[in-house]
């Protein structure tokens, strides 16, 4: 077992592509640590640097208190499981699982007993004499896991091990991996872009974006109290409502947040009020999860947002209301982005509501015509607010709805996407 420490680690690929930027993480001995983020954010590169498959450009990697930058993959005593299992196709399941023991020249009788034991633990003992090509995706991943576990490494490195499996199998194997790895107590670094995997498996999660660390914390910390609007937008389904608002500090009342013609008030007794007051007359971003909005009959009782239902979607256990509320939606993917989008992703329309939000977030500054791509601020969503309704309750398309806002759960971010109030970790 081993602690893993990354100290200001950066990776620039030949050709100048910077994949990881100044990343510092401390992963405790025995911790199940998940690297989460969208495609291209540098998760796999980070994992491969820890494995020794990719050179570290600058910074230090420490494994069990030892500087490991120059160690070979074998010297690091880590085991990696890839997305596709990566098994030897001409070797049986038995030989694939036993391969690390064969390399280590372990006692043959003892090795074969351990292989059988491992296969039993993973529920693949009936397949021991089959070739990988005859296995299902889930069975192949179990074999890959078995091969990684059997050598009792100091660190497990898993790169999206479930992403090629169908949803049901993914859930099953997710539970199994969680149980198995926890049982072994081996430090695990697990890469995924799937928030459910991250939230369910991790002791702690680090969220990466464009190679930078956005946030790190336990699943409840990251979900309930994200450090940035990007993280708030990345976690949770349906996606959090991110709305542009202009704060106005009003003595005796609180900080009034103007959202178009609507308003919410953070009373002075709320510790966030003084922080958001510092953004007086600037633009802030409110993060309101759909379950922090509850239909109410009385628009004058407590904080309320109102709007017209554009669409009602039936989701079985609930209805999802898409509501036009005359508010400006902010695109989580672009707020506070430090890296310019690739040319293909740039140049999307910034007109209409998106354009208004963009100009709000830039303090009304007009975008100069020039080579800099315009960050996309706006929404792909069909309406401005998403709210959950437990029943249809007489609502339909075009109905006017008042939504009581659970103010305690509203997150407030500055225009740079960072929380205005201190983020406790
Ligand atoms: N060998 C390479 N040479 C040059 N650039 C690379 C190389 N490998 C990755 N990159 C770039 O580095 C960035 C990070 O890639 P990486 O594979 O680490 O991201 P990721 O978060 O794991 O993405 P995904 O979820 O799609 O696998 C991307 O912009 C990618 O194009």
TrEMBL record:
Keyword Transit peptide included in the entry's annotation: no
Organism annotation: Thermomonospora echinospora
PROSITE patterns the UniProt entry points to: ABC_TRANSPORTER_1 (PS00211), ABC_TRANSPORTER_2 (PS50893)
Keywords: ATP-binding, Nucleotide-binding, Sugar transport, Transport
Swiss-Prot/TrEMBL GO biological process terms: carbohydrate transport
Domain ABC transporter residues, every copy: 4-235
GO cellular component annotations of the record: ATP-binding cassette (ABC) transporter complex, substrate-binding subunit-containing
Listed name of the protein: Multiple sugar transport system ATP-binding protein
Source species, domain of life: Bacteria
SUPFAM superfamilies reported for this sequence: MOP-like, P-loop containing nucleoside triphosphate hydrolases
Annotated CDD domains: ABC_MalK_N
Signal peptide, first to last residue: none
Coiled coil: none
A molecular function (GO) term: ABC-type transporter activity
